[in-house]
Amino acid sequence: MYENQKQHIINFLNKGLRFDRRKLDEYRDISLETGVSKNAEGSARVRIGETDLIVGIKLELGEPYPDSPDEGTIMVGAELLPLSNPEFESGPPRIEAIELARVVDRGIRESKVLDFKKLCIKKGEKIWIVIIDIVTINVDGNLFDASALAAMAALKDAQLPKIKDNKILYKEPTKDKLPLSAKEPVAVTVCKIGDYLIIDPTSEEEKVIDARLTVAITKEGKICAMQKGGTTPLSAGDIDKMVELAAKKCEELRKYLK
Known about the structure:
By secondary structure, this protein is an alpha+beta fold. It has a single domain, classed as Ribosomal Protein S5, domain 2 (2-Layer Sandwich). It is built from 5 helices and 12 strands. Helix 2 packs across helix 3 (143-157). The longest helix is centred in the last third of the chain and has 19 residues, at 236-254.
């Protein structure tokens, strides 16, 4: 269906360029704002090119899981609004939304950036549940990198509200922040089109990729999560090159978290 479009893109890549004249390993313009929602405990808005989304943090009280009675937890959800892209439809979560939420969840969870034990209020009885909601405003590719960056920024922005008589006083935030370490995972997605590797794909480019690899890397430079997409298998050599490129580019995104 997209063979002609793919060949046209490859013709540009042969010249070391893309449709928007970027280099193969070049991000579009990036901006990040925090504190964009008054009704969330923490929030962030990230724009990468024409892709624009908001992540909000809500905190709820809950009971711990039986196998981790002294740990809080996180829940990540993604809503791909029809107004943000004509290909999105109303109704149950699309497979793309489910995958997006899982990729963001895994990067945060496996990096250990959030101390789950410090989210425990009373062992076996009460914990904080950190709910991370991703909402798209406009989508033109690369939701994985934008969402992961916004989620980390929103977590850093969040403040714990007061608790009184086992109820959360959402209108009375404390000065306490979430128990975060300095690991701060950042995700970089590398896409393969033909023999070429690119980052920060637009929607047009995403339609013709052969494979993609999203790599979440901590501030210490350790890989904490990876997610492969696309229908074409990747060789060990492909993966090595993609991980190397992701590690190189992650510092460009990390500077927005400072």
